[in-house]
Amino acid sequence: MNDQTKIVRDQTEGETGSIVFPIYQSSAFLLPKGEKFRYSRENNPSVESLCIKINNLEGADAGSCFSSGMGAVTTTLLSLLSPGKTLLVQRDIFARSFKFITGFLKNWGINVIAFNPGTESIMAYSNRKVDLIFIESITNPMLRVTDIEKIRSIFHDGETVIVTDATLATPVLQKPLSLGSDLVIHSLSKFISGHNDTIGGYVGGRKDLVSKIDENRRTLGPSMDPNTAFLINRGMKTLYVRMRQSGITAFSIAKKLEKVEMIKKVHYPLLENHADYPRSKELINGYPSVVSFDLDTEKVDIQSFMSALKIIMPANTLGGLNTTITHPATMSHRTISHEERLRSGIMPGTMRLSVGLESEEDLIGDLERSISTATKA
């Protein structure tokens, strides 16, 4: 069965024949029949149904759902690492993940090594013993495309665990487990749910690793509630349609933004001037829905630009039906230093545009008009 067919189908509910999997709004389940679920912090039928669906899309042996994407990230890393172990992490990833790794985990006794943007940067550590590598398949917000296959060929299976955050790619554009990653993580709040109305996370992959992570989820408590599971399941049924439409629009907008005078650089993996362009065409199955670009801050006032937008919404999120824009330096990546942002490629004028389902003409018109309005005298 094709993935696009799998994603719109729910498990039929045995006793009622409901074609939509219901919300099991129960904190506990009557024993002995309810032994499998017992207590909803540990397991819940609505959450399990969602998790099974994502497992099937990703080709995961097992999976676990969380109350947030960061809950999935932190529980995964705490479950697989201990003081004295070595963790390699991309520098150009989501700020909260990077801060947790380089702050909390480092203080906890983990040997943390941050490598610079680009897959080639990891080559310098090929002769070192590395216990875990944390990467993003498409980095946030600079949209570098990580070559998971190459990393796997360097750091052998069974010796190094590779954890890939694939939030920006989703299973539509890439399946990291098939490329050599041991685990895949998603912020379900973004493209997978797609409606800016839920917070959730997921990790899936090798059963032995997921079992450790899931056991700690039950103990630490970042469990997903059944209402959230229902909303994410409903939202993800349109994932393939949304990703394809928004991706096509994003690609077109990226090409047009290259011609806008006040934009110094456009970051999009399928533009020929992108650092990862040759491999991007092989590693990504379609068009990413996010475009980043660097405004010339000597000529354009960032706050005036965002205030002038009428259709695009300045918001600290991405992946919804509505197009949103983020200024990483003051929004998504405000918690890391200016120097660290520069090392990741984030300039003072970098903007991250998450393209939704609005008209392309309306979106490009809104951007061009707002840039013009915010141009300094």
Write the layout of secondary structure elements.
Blueprint (H helix, E strand, L loop, with lengths): L2 H4 L38 H14 L3 E5 L2 H12 L5 E5 L4 H13 L3 E5 L16 E5 L11 H7 L6 E5 L4 H4 L2 H4 L3 E5 L13 E5 L1 H14 L5 H11 L2 H19 L5 E5 L9 H7 L6 E6 L6 H7 L4 E2 L9 E3 L11 H7 L5 E5 L5 H14 L4
Parallel strand pairs: 2-3, 2-4, 4-5, 5-6, 10-11
Antiparallel strand pairs: 1-7, 6-7, 8-9, 9-12, 11-12
Helix pairs in contact: 2-9, 3-4, 3-8, 12-14
Report on the architecture of this protein.
The protein has 377 residues and is of the alpha/beta class. The chain folds into 2 domains: 3-236, Type I PLP-dependent aspartate aminotransferase-like (Major domain) (Aspartate Aminotransferase, domain 2); 239-373, Aspartate Aminotransferase, domain 1 (Alpha-Beta Complex), CATH 3.90.1150. It is 36% helix and 15% strand. It has 14 helices and 12 strands. The strands form 2 sheets. The chain has a 7-stranded mixed sheet, with helices on both faces. β2, α4 and β3 form a beta-alpha-beta unit. The radius of gyration is 21 Å and the shape is globular. The mean pLDDT is 95.
State the CATH superfamily name of the largest domain: Type I PLP-dependent aspartate aminotransferase-like (Major domain)
State the helix count.
14
List the domain count as a whole number.
Answer: 2
Basic shape: globular
Average per-residue pLDDT, rounded, comes to: 95
Order of helical and strand elements: HHEHEHEEHEHHEEHHHEHEHEEHEH
